[in-house]
Amino acid sequence: MHSTPFVVISGVLAIVLLVVLITRVKLHPFFALLISSILLGIVNGLGVTDAVGDFTDGFGSQLSVTGVVIGLGAMLGGILIRTGGGDKIADVIIGKRKLVWMPISVGLVALIIGLPNLFEVTFVLMVPLVFSIAKRLGVPVLTVGVPMTAGLMTAHGLLPPGPATVLAATAYKASIGEVTLYGVIIAVPVLLVGAWLFPRLMRRYLTVGSALDISGGSGSGDKKLEPTRQVGLAPALTSVLIAPVLMIIGTLGLDSAPKNQLFQAIGNPVISLSLAVLFGFVFLGRGAGFSADGILSLVKTSIVPIVGLLLIIGAGGGLKNMLTAIGLSDIVSGLAKEWSIPVLLFAWIVAAIFRIALGSGTVAVSASSGIVAALLAANPGTNSALLVLATCTGAMIFSHVSDGAFWIFKEYFGLTVPQTLRTWSLQVTVMSVVGLIGVLILGATVH
């Protein structure tokens, strides 16, 4: 084992290398994580075989639960969108309400539809709705677009089965149901600020931009993936809410019946999401007129976009395991205790640093969770579910040019880079800080 200064310096250099490989060399984050992790292990004397072994152990451990949950979430999201269930939810909740209610309505729809979907996927799918609402109300597209992204970020960053929350919950061995329960509580002020207050305060900056021309055709071109019947609101909404409701019920039930197998089962995210997917197959897939082959094709197309994400998440687990293997996690944990930084605040700061450095919120959670997990072991009184949310809110902060979502927002709404920084980047930063405040308040009351 090398000296503490050597381990710390090598760890910092590995992170710098990771940032350079992603932002400058333009390597895929998975490969960048792989290279920096194994080099870190070798430099610290683990040997090539041991370094690779530690990385692959961390990779597999990270995906053992996370991969299944994200895969099921992708299936559910594909079913919801392709059958028209997402459009049905949007039409009913937004309807013809007055302009004053539009931000909250749009934010709520985005949150609901975004629950089982990746941020980028839901963004692209909801953009036509944003453009049509803006045209119907005669307002700038950002007036509708900003509340939409607030809902998506809230769902993606605070609520399972979002990749960040599931990933952090796995790393900290937190109850997904408890994360969902506290996530819903914190999501209320975060969504209100991001979808309603922020646009009101920044309205003079929301008059810029224009709608991207997306009229080049719609649909997949495959008739098997086109619905032949409309689905109702009840099955669409039920398919989205089954998993979070079951996980919350399971968590609450375990508090009063710790040995009850039923509550343990329905609170398990794999089981609750599997039930939601099966419900979607029957009441959305078949309800929309899909054949068995059509549903199978739909599932296949839903899984393809998450392959790269799963590789990144697994590689983040490899880096986390390497940080533990070389002793850096324990060193950082000791420093945090010496400096008397509250664990929840420390988790937020570490995740925020990685987010700003690396761009991707998911990668930031992957990279920071290994460091923060050691703190949890040294502070057993810390609520692990709140630690998940502290990490995830930190990973929401200041999306900028190294984040793919930044460019999606910029291009779809026809903005310049400075305009995107004043709108999108500032919005997610405000939401991140509000989320931290919510976590700290809950941390002072929940034990």
UniProtKB/TrEMBL annotation:
Keyword Glycoprotein tagged: no
Keyword Chloroplast annotated: no
Bilayer topology annotation: Multi-pass membrane protein
GO molecular function terms attached to this record: gluconate transmembrane transporter activity
Transmembrane segments: 6-23, 30-47, 59-81, 101-131, 179-198, 233-254, 266-285, 297-319, 339-357, 386-409, 424-446
Domain of life: Bacteria
Keyword entries, A-Z: Cell membrane, Membrane, Transmembrane, Transmembrane helix, Transport
UniProt-listed InterPro entries: Glcn_transporter
Main location: membrane
GO cellular component: plasma membrane
A Pfam family assignment: GntP_permease
Cell compartments where the protein resides: Cell membrane
UniProt similarity note: Belongs to the GntP permease family.
NCBIfam families: gntP
Name assigned to this protein: GntP family gluconate:H+ symporter
